[in-house]
Structure formats: C-alpha cells, structure tokens
C-alpha cells in the first residue's frame, strides 16, 4: 500500500518547487564537472580527464616542481610560452631571490599571477609573498594534507545536503521498486565517501587514481538516475511510464524482484542477491576488461 503522495499527484506549486530545486542543482552539477575539466582535467597539459590528471593532482608529478607542473598543465593558458619558459628556467636555476627581479620573473608574476594569487584570495598561495612562491619550487607532491582536509570537509557537508534533498524528492517516486529505490538513494553517499577516501589513497599511492574516477562516475550516475526519474514522473508520467519506454524499464526491474512465497526479509535478501548478480555479470563483461586495460597501459 502506498503511504505517500506520488510525485505525479502532488499539487502544481509543490511540483514547481521540486523542479526548481532539481534544475538548479542539476545545472550546478554540470558546471562542477566543467570546472573539473578545466582544473584537474588540465593537470597533464591536455584537455580531458585522465588517470594521469588524477595522479598529478593528488600524488603529484614527482619528476618536476609544482610551478613547472602547473605552468605546463592547468595554468598553461595564463601566460604565453616565452614567459612560462622564463619562469621555469628561473626555477631550474634554483629559484634564488637574488635573480628574482633581474631575471624578469618578478614582473611576469606580478602581471600574470598576482591578480588571483594575492593576500585576499583564500585557499591558494599568495605570490606577492616570495616565501610562498619559493615553497612551490620544490618537488611536486600534489595536494597537501592540509588542502585535502579542507576540501574533504567542504565536500562531505555540502554534497551530503544536495543528495539529501534530491533523495527526498526521489523517495516520492513510484515507478522504481522499493528495494532499488532504497539502493539508489543510498548509493550516492557510498560513492561520496569512496570519492573522498580515494583522494587520500591517491595521495599515498598513484595506483588508487582509478578509484577516484570510478567513485565520481558512480556518484554522477546515481544523481542522474534520481534526477531524471523525478522530473519525468512529475511532468511526463503517462507518455513515459504508461504509454512509453518507461513500461519496459519497470517490467525489467520487476523481473529482478523475487516472486512466489518469499516475503519480508527473505524477499529483500532475494532481491538484493539478484541485483548483485546482475552487477557482477556487468562487471565481468565490461568493468573488469576496462580495469585490465588500464593496468596494461
């Protein structure tokens, strides 16, 4: 028996409220992905997110300095090549304060970098302070533990609230069987914790970089599933779930649920078992070959 008002039956003002929130956080999620492409995605100097980008961002490029890595990666577009080469040459010569102004590096830093890297900016080094700039001429070891701590607690609090409200709206849906609805609501938190944990693990060893991408992908898929289902049920229930392709999806999900005499805990156990069997088959068909390809690379 349904003990709640399904999304399709809510009053129009409530649907508008839910839709406004979902559209806003949906746009925010897309913008966040774009921001990742322009920051972490440029860590290796090439547009697009790759394993190398993740390694350079968290573990660091141990073959060079922080300044070199940034100038050849995410900061590549902030200065023309001759000026970037001039800074890198100064760093390789020892980054001495006596050569800072005579070499012309001071003027380049003042013109190109201090606009963002100043004392009023939070979370990034102040390049008007030579000592902070000097610290970045050491070997690139990726994110610092202090930076990871700051970013981790911001993501844990902020993203948890986003998924709480998205999950609350999705909880009023009726086209997804309860066991899978519960999994869909809970999985973003699992992937969020895995994502944060993978940053720290990658900081310790580059092998864990693949976990960052898998966790982030899982979080995005969970978000997209709840978002799309909620929007479609509120505004396009009949053409999608009664007369359209949504019927086949519901039948497919229903076939995964145990039939017969099972009830209560036994039925839940059987449903979860079938779900894991399905995921295992997909992992063996697609996931594991992909991971093996990464190892071979």
Give a summary of the structure in a few sentences.
This protein is mainly alpha-helical and 297 residues long. It has twelve helices and no strands.
Mean residue pLDDT: 85
Distance between the termini: 53 Å
Low-confidence stretches: none
- SSE ordering: HHHHHHHHHHHH
Extended strand count = 0
Main beta-sheet annotation: none
- What Rg do the Cα atoms give? 25 Å
Domains counted in the coordinates: how many?
Answer: 2
Explain what the structure shows.
With 297 residues, the protein is an all-alpha fold. The mean pLDDT is 85. The protein is 67% helix and 0% strand. It contains twelve helices and no strands. The termini are far apart. The chain has helices at residues 12-38, 51-59, 66-71, 81-92, 105-113, 130-135, 145-170, 178-204, 209-235, 237-242, 246-256, 264-296. It is elongated and about 75 Å long. The chain has two domains: 7-39 and 144-256; 64-135, no CATH class.
Search tags:
single chain, mainly alpha, 2 domains
Secondary-structure map:
Elements: H1 12-38, H2 51-59, H3 66-71, H4 81-92, H5 105-113, H6 130-135, H7 145-170, H8 178-204, H9 209-235, H10 237-242, H11 246-256, H12 264-296
